[in-house]
Design goal:
By secondary structure, this protein is an alpha/beta fold. Helices cover about 25% and strands about 25% of the residues. The strands form 4 sheets. Strands 6, 7, 8, 15, 16, 17, 18, 19 and 20 form a 9-stranded mixed beta sheet that branches. A 6-stranded mixed beta sheet has the order 10-3-2-14-22-21, sandwiched between helices. The chain has a 4-stranded mixed beta sheet with strand order 1-13-12-11, with no helix packed on it. A hairpin with a 2-residue loop joins strand 11 and strand 12. Helix 1 runs parallel beside helix 5, helix 1 packs parallel to helix 8 and helix 2 crosses helix 8.
């Protein structure tokens, strides 16, 4: 029986960021079902930091994360962000969506069709009524960030246990016991950072589910025409998010921006969904779609209000929810990791009380 102050279930970016910050003052273990960390959503991310992505609560998290990425030198011994930019285009019937996206946003530039094509020359100007450009959107080196969280945690005496799916959970007094096929682990605090399996882990602990729904998101890698260089292009896509593309090592990563609800699983792409997304990409550009070099799919898990749940369960002591990051998990990981530390250790957070309340799982028990 191995005992800790905190056990984190889930070795993705959410669990490891929380573990890294908590390990400064607590004995922490991360239990991951897969053979290595970052296997599911973290390892299949679009790897982009977009300051204006998400609702008001998520944008507040983005602000905290941006300060971390810009100023932290202890966790991040090397930078994990690099310039990219984001360009969103709107057809004539999508101008309302463009205006709604710009409402409350900062650092955006409104562009016409020609200005959009100057940034991404393969776009079809005849289909663009307006565009918006966020020059400060940046690429994230997801693997480097994940490994830095893991390194900090280990340096502080934390332990990462892989290849051990949780088989059972029970609480006696103030102590939780977690059982896997190989061992048992104990701690007074359990952090549920299990991604798409968040409600499953909650129910295993005897808690009511919060309504988490995983959605599939697919992508392909496609070559660009000979003699065409795309490395300097921004991420670009439709304002209604029915496709987007991003340069990737001299090629294009193209996604149909699908959001098909599925059960928690090791996700695989649907050929028909990919074909529909590639068709929408082809209609918006001037280059033909060629045979994809490879394809994959990941899961983006949302709660009903598309806002993460971060905080202790109001009904069962010592159980902490850290789920529902959707497509924002990587870029918000510094903010949610720090908030988790502050709530678990009863410290003051840099986030405002209204934002903390908006993230609390209590909202699902009202």
């Amino acid at each position: 029986m191995m005992s800790y102050d905190v056990i984190v279930i889930g070795g993705g970016i959410a669990g490891l960021s929380a573990a890294a910050f908590l390990s400064e003052a607590a004995k922490v273990a991360v239990i991951e079902a897969e053979p290595h960390i970052g296997y599911h959503s973290t390892g299949r991310s679009a790897a982009i930091f977009i300051r204006n992505y998400g609702n008001e609560t998520l944008r507040a998290l983005n602000d905290v994360a941006a300060r971390f990425f810009e100023t932290d030198t202890q966790t991040l011994t090397d930078p994990v962000l690099s310039p990219r930019g984001e360009l969103l285009i709107a057809k004539p019937d999508e101008l309302d969506a463009l205006d709604a996206y710009c409402a409350g946003a900062t650092g955006l530039e409104r562009l016409n069709a020609q200005e959009a094509c100057d940034l991404v020359p393969i776009l079809n100007p005849e289909l663009i009524s307006a565009a918006v450009y966020e020059p400060d959107a940046q690429d994230i080196d997801v693997d480097r960030l994940l490994q830095r969280y893991a390194a900090v945690m280990r340096a502080n005496g934390g332990q990462i246990i892989t290849g051990q799916p949780v088989q059972g959970m029970a609480k006696m007094g103030a102590i939780w016991t977690i059982t896997t096929d190989l061992d048992r682990y104990q701690a007074p605090v359990i952090i549920n950072a299990s991604g798409a399996w968040g409600d499953h882990i909650g129910q295993m602990a005897g808690l009511r589910p919060l309504g988490l729904q995983p959605y599939r998101r697919s992508a392909v890698i496609m070559a660009v025409p000979d003699k065409m260089t795309c490395a300097h292009w921004p991420l670009f896509g439709s304002i209604n998010e029915d496709w987007y593309a991003k340069p990737d090592a001299g090629r294009l990563m193209i996604s149909p921006a699908d959001a098909d609800p599925i059960a928690p699983q090791d996700a695989y792409p649907d050929d028909l969904v990919l074909a529909q997304g590639l068709y929408r990409f082809e209609q918006a550009t001037t280059i033909p779609v060629t045979r994809p070099l490879r394809s994959w799919a990941g899961l983006r898990s949302f709660l009903p209000d598309h806002t993460p749940a971060v905080g202790f369960d109001p009904e069962v002591g010592g159980f902490f929810w850290l789920i529902g990051q959707g497509g924002y998990g990587v870029q918000t990981s510094p903010a949610l990791g720090q908030l988790t530390r502050d709530l678990v250790l009863a410290q003051t957070s840099v986030l405002s009380e209204p934002i903390i309340a908006a993230l609390s799982p209590n909202r699902f028990h009202a």
